[in-house]
Design a protein that fits this description.
alpha/beta, Rossmann fold, two-stranded antiparallel sheet
């Protein structure tokens, strides 16, 4: 009897849901628009004098988010491993209007470092209002080309634990201020894209963590999850780097220069959405249409990707982080910069990073 009921629901529920969604979509769009207007006019948070911690603030999305908060006259705490780079960003932030901006060199995948920069913030300012988790690490290799699995925990650590640890430490202070956590996620958390398997897995775990946390904190602490498509940052401009204590970097010049949406626009949307109290910020929002295919017609989505990949021609990869040597005659070019002797990895490990 139960099997018969399950079979019946499998046949009826998906098309019925699509019908309901089709009829309710205009009303939902109208309600969302009214809510957005109301929040923009009446509930937008004044950040003047508020305290904002931004991780991954030394470049990319994190840097631009710092400038957006600076324009709102917030007190900034900029966290990353490149302290020298942070100092230049803090000067520009103060020029743009930040009441103050302090820099703290720290590694977000180390709980002790996270506890240190949160405690230093509270000791200096007495509070934390917004925690922006902007540190992120991408890759562009095919999984079956990897021969050195030591890259796996690096990706998971930065993209998942690099968000969880700062949140864990800052949460008691955010409860006190009825503050907000802002998360830099990605559309890859549900949209499958080649050469990004581990990154996508980490982002999926991240989004599910914060969706659950949202229910647990019960509106005492706001959570804004920002998801983006292809953003024009260091990764799309051909720069890839992985730092060890801000002392060692690996860089690669990509064989194909890619371009993406402006990171400045995404940062502006994130900060505006966070100050309105939005639960989600999406850029560009039309990516949501793929979610319908992912849920109701996954085969169509898979066929589309396979068609696009086959039309692209021979499979190409940057061979970054795979543990395989690159021939001298290839298009990739590596440069190692180090300021002190360190134990280097056996193979070049190179990624794109927002810190």
């Amino acid at each position: 009897m139960m099997d018969l009921m399950t079979s019946f629901l499998n046949l009826v529920v998906p098309p019925a849901t699509m019908m309901m969604l089709a009829f309710s979509w205009p009303a939902l769009c109208f309600i969302n628009a009214c809510e957005w207007v109301y929040n923009t006019l009446y509930t937008i948070e004044d950040m003047d004098g508020k305290v904002v911690i931004i991780t991954g603030a030394s470049s990319g999305i994190g840097e631009q988010i710092a400038y957006e908060y600076a324009k709102r006259r917030a007190n900034l705490v900029l966290v990353a491993r490149r302290e020298q780079r942070l100092r230049a960003i803090s000067e520009k932030a103060r020029y743009l209007g930040a009441n103050s901006a302090i820099v703290i060199a720290a590694d977000v995948v180390k709980e002790d470092d996270c506890r240190r920069f949160v405690n230093e913030t509270v000791n200096f300012y007495g509070r934390v209002d917004h925690l922006v988790n902007a540190a992120s690490l991408g890759h562009t290799f095919y999984f079956d080309e990897v021969t050195d699995s030591s890259v796996f925990p690096i990706l998971l650590d930065i993209n998942f634990w690099g968000n969880v640890y700062p949140t864990f430490v800052a949460l008691p202070y955010l409860h006190q201020s009825n503050g907000r956590v802002i998360v830099n996620a990605s559309v890859e958390n549900w949209l499958p894209l080649p050469r990004m398997s581990l990154y996508a897995a980490a982002k999926a775990a991240l989004v599910n963590f914060y969706e659950t946390l949202r229910l647990e904190v019960n509106n005492d602490v706001g959570i804004t999850i920002a998801t983006h498509g292809w953003i024009g940052g260091e990764m799309t401009r051909g720069k890839f780097m992985l730092e060890e204590g801000a002392e060692m970097q690996w860089k690669e010049e990509r064989e194909v220069q890619a371009s993406g949406g402006p990171v400045e626009e995404f940062a502006r949307l994130i900060v505006s959405g966070a100050c309105r109290g939005d639960a989600y910020v999406k850029y560009p929002s039309w990516h949501d249409t793929f979610l319908l295919f992912r849920v109701f017609a996954p085969n169509v989505l898979n066929w589309s990707f396979r068609l696009l990949l086959s039309a692209h021609g021979t499979r190409r990869t940057s061979m970054v982080g795979v543990g395989k040597p690159i021939s001298e005659g290839g298009t990739g070019r590596y440069l190692m910069e180090t300021t002190s002797p360190r134990k280097l990895p056996a193979r070049p490990i190179t990624f794109s990073k927002t810190e």
